[in-house]
Amino acid sequence: MSLADELRAKLIRNFNTAQTEPFERAPRYSEQFACLTDGTAARKLGCSLSIVAPGKQACPYHLHHHQEEMFIILEGTGTLRVAGELLPIAAGDVITIPAGPEYPHHILNTSDAPLKYLSLSTREYPEICEYPDSGKHYAFTRAEPGKQRFAAVHRADSKLDYWDGEP
């Protein structure tokens, strides 16, 4: 393999030719998904492609405590639910979501055609996400190659005492 081929493999991904994987959780969630930074040299940025089916969404309403996100709408129209408001979005829109409790968010495909967008994020770990609609918290770390990452989901009313199980 030439140096040019090695560099291309480490540095370049094409979202038009990326192999997507389906994700389905009826009745609300349905998307085709591809992580564009897996296997690249990227360390601090993540990027993925989402194609959300009409009338569906890719994830629950949530907020990040450490990671910032940016969404670039490539095709279609939909709705950004952010901070309790519903904002129309369309191809060409660039959406920035800072970390913190002020901007819980998710993207809804409220149209009758697929909604295609890029999700970019900072890779800041450990991360804690909150889900205002369900009252959950999700704490996780990044997985190192060949190792399992730490991940825990709980609700505030089900948490353990700090000393639980300690001698």
TrEMBL record:
SUPFAM superfamilies: RmlC-like cupins. Keywords: Metal-binding. Residues 50-119 form the Cupin type-2 domain. It comes from the Bacteria. This is Cupin domain-containing protein. It comes from Piscinibacterium candidicorallinum. The lineage of its organism: Bacteria, Pseudomonadati, Pseudomonadota, Betaproteobacteria, Burkholderiales.
